[in-house]
Amino acid sequence: MLERPFTTLLLGLLPGPLLVAGLVACAEPARYDVVIRGGTVYDGSGEPPRQADVGIIGDTVVALGDLDGALATTDIDATGLAVSPGFVNMLSWATESLIEDGKAQSDIRQGVTLEVFGEGWSMGPLTEAMKGELEQRQSDIRYEVEWTTLGEYLEYLVERGIAPNVASFVGATTLRIHEIGYEDRPPTPEELDRMRQLVAEAMEEGAMGVGSSLIYAPAFYSTTEELIELCKVAARYGGMYISHMRSEGNRLEEAIEELITIAREADIPAEIYHLKQAGKENWHKLDWVVERVERARAEGLLITADMYTYTAGATGLDAAMPPWVQEGGHDAWAERLRDPEIRARVAREMSAPSDDWENLYLGAGAEGMLLVGFKSEELKPLTGRSLAEVEADRGTTPEETAMDLVVEDDSRVGTIYFLMSEDNVRRQVALPWLSFGSDAEAAATEGVFLLSNPHPRAYGNFARVLGRYVRDEGVLPLEEAIRKLAALPAENLGIEDRGRLAEGYKADVAIFDPATIRDHATFEQPHQYATGMVHVLVNGVPVLTDGEPTGRPAGRVVRGPGWVGESAPTAATGD
Question: If both were cysteines, with which of 33, 170, 216, 360 could 207 make a disulfide (CB 3.0 to 4.6 Å apart)?
Answer without folding.
Answer: 170
